[in-house]
# Entry
Amino acid sequence: MMSENEQLQELEELEELLRAVPMVHPPLGFAGRVMARIDRRRQRRRATLGGLMLATGAALSIVLLLLPEIWALPGWVGSWLAFWPTGEIVLARVADAAVTVLNSFFLTAGVLIVPLGSLALCSLFMALVSSVLWVGLVQRWQPTAIQLIRR
# Structure
C-alpha cells in the first residue's frame, strides 16, 4: 500500500505529464453543433410531452362528453355484471350508487351549466386554445442554439 506522500508524488507526476501534452482545440463550429443537437433534443422532448398532454386532455374531454350516452345504454350495467358471478349483489349496489351519483351529476350539469352540444363546442374550443398556447409557450421559452452559445 502506498503512503500519502507517494500518492501525492504520483499525482504531481501525472499533472506534469498532462501539462506537457499539447492542447488540441476542437474544430470550428463544434460548440455550435453540440448546442444545436442539445436544442433539438429539448424541442423533441417538449413537443412530445405537450402532445401527450393535449392528447390526454382531448381523450378525457371526449370520455366526459360520451359518458352520459354510454351510461344510458339499456342493460349496460346488467350485462357488465353478468361477467362477475361472485359478488354480484355488491357490484350491483355499487353500480346502482354510481348510476345515481352520475345521473344526478349529469342532470345538474344539464340544467344548471350548459346543454351537451355547447359543452362539446366549449371543449373543442378549449382544446384549440390550449394547443395554441402550448405551441406559443414552447417557442417562447425554448432557448435557441445561438442563445446557448453566447452564454
The chain has a mean pLDDT of 77. The longest helix spans residues 30-71. The CA atoms of residues 23 and 77 lie 76 Å apart. Helices lie at 4-20, 30-71, 76-81, 88-113, 116-141, 145-150.
